[in-house]
Amino acid sequence: MLSHKPTLNAALARSALDAAVEAAKASGLAMSVAVVDDGGYPLCLERMDGAGLLTAKVASEKARTSALLRAPSRALADRVAADPALLRLTDYLPMTGGLPIMAEGRCIGAIGVSGGTPEQDEQIGQAGIEALYSD
C-alpha cells in the first residue's frame, strides 16, 4: 500500500513567501526570500527592492540547506563552529536563516531569508511559515 506524503505546492510556497516579504516590509528591511521543495529545488524567490544582489543566492542556498538537512540551517552553522572540517560539505551553506517547513511530522520544503542579521532572517522566515498554519 502506498503512503500519503504531504507536499508543498507552488501556491503554498507563494503564500509563505508573500507573508515573509510583508513581515520584512513591516520591519523596514529589504531582503530576499526563497522557498524550496523537500528536495531543495526552487519553488519561488523574491529579491525585494533595495535588497543586496547576493541576498537572492544566499536565501536560496539557506533554504536548500535547511530542506536537505531537515533542520534549520543554523544547526549546521553551529556544528561548523565546533568542527570546521564540516565546511568541506560544499553543497550546504552553514548560515542562519533557513528553516524547514513541516507537515505531519515531515519536512515538505524550506524557506530561506537573507538581508538582515541572522536573527532577523530567522524571524522573517518564521513569519512566512506561520502564515501557512494560520489559515
Describe the structure.
The chain contains four helices and four strands; from the N terminus they run H-E-E-H-H-E-E-H. By secondary structure, it is an alpha+beta fold. The protein has a single domain (10-133), classed as Haem-degrading domain (Beta-Lactamase, 2-Layer Sandwich), CATH 3.30.450.150. The chain has a four-stranded antiparallel sheet with strand order 2-1-4-3. Strand 3 and strand 4 (106-114) form a beta hairpin. The relative contact order is 0.23. The model has no long low-confidence stretch (mean pLDDT 95).
Relevant terms:
alpha+beta, Beta-Lactamase, 20% strand
SS-based class:
alpha+beta
CATH domain topology: Beta-Lactamase
- The total number of structural domains is 1
Strand order of the largest sheet: 2-1-4-3
Contiguous low-pLDDT stretches (5 residues minimum) are none
- The rough form would be described as globular
